[in-house]
Amino acid sequence: MRAMVLERPGTALVPRDLPDPKPGPGQVTLRVTACGVCRTDLHVVDGDLTEPKLPLVPGHEIVGRVEAVGAGVTAFAPGDRVGVPWLGHTCGRCLYCQSGRENLCDAPGFTGYTIDGGYAEMATADAAYCFPLPEVYDDVEAAPLLCAGLIGFRSYRMVPDARRLGLYGFGAAAHIICQVAVFEGREVYAFTRPGDALAQGFARSLGAH
Q1: Sites in the chain below the pLDDT cut of 70
Q2: Spatial separation of the C-alpha atoms in residues 155 and 153, rounded to whole Å
Q3: For residue 6, how far is the Cα from the chain centroid?
């Protein structure tokens, strides 16, 4: 497969020919159809996150079709359309995993950081951290939902009855959840840096007060 590879932090990605990945137990291998670019990807490439797997295929907003499944995988079959997020693996044993807060796991794996990601023709992922994707979204529309969408919704679901919602900052996660909240009839207030007319105008255009 062809892939874009980070060989050393602070350098440009380089195109490489790599062996097609094979799924291990509990994994699926995907043919990648889209992969978003997240600010975290830039932090990885720039060296702001200091412990990447090297060499590394970045990218953690992956949309693809299952090519093959590993032993023990029953949730997906070849041809299924799935998404792969930043959180790519957890230990399943620590206090956080045991209490439903696996995003705080003591021994996690991260797609496009400690696990090869989606800037490639194919990728392998833990099936437990893949999501089935509805066909109503095309590949490019679905990709940002695998990071910014998840971040926003993780917080949003904690305030199911709030009629007024304040969003601190108005980046990728906020602008997605703003649209959801407005659609559901809530009042949304966006907090931005003083003078950031671009973000303020964007928030208002999506229905923020």
Answers
A1: none
A2: 5
A3: 19
Q: What is d(CA 14, CA 5) in angstroms, rounded to the nearest whole number? A: 5
Residue 128's pLDDT is 95
Same domain as 157, residue 125: no
Give the Cβ contact number of residue 110 at 10 Å: 20
Half-sphere exposure of 153 (CA within 13 A, CB side): 9
Q: What's residue 1's pLDDT?
A: 97
Distance, C-alpha 197 to centroid of its chain: 28
Would you state the pLDDT for residue 80? 97
Q: Report the pLDDT value the prediction gives residue 82, as an integer from 0 to 100.
A: 97
Burial 131-161 (b: 16+ CB within 10 A, else e): eebeeeeebeebbbbbbbbbbbeeebeeeee
Counting the structural domains of the chain, the total is 2
Q: What are phi and psi of 127, to 5 degrees?
A: -60, -30
Residue 157 sits in the same domain as residue 125: no
Q: pTM for this one?
A: 0.90
Domain of 199, in residue numbers: 153-205
DSSP for 73-103 reads --S--TT-EEEE-SEEE--S-SHHHHTT-GG
The single-letter code of the amino acid at 38 is: C
Q: Give the side-chain half-sphere CA count within 13 A for 55.
A: 15
DSSP 124: E
> What's the Cα-to-Cα distance from 196 to each of 106, 118, 147, 191, 192, rounded to whole Å?
37, 33, 24, 10, 7
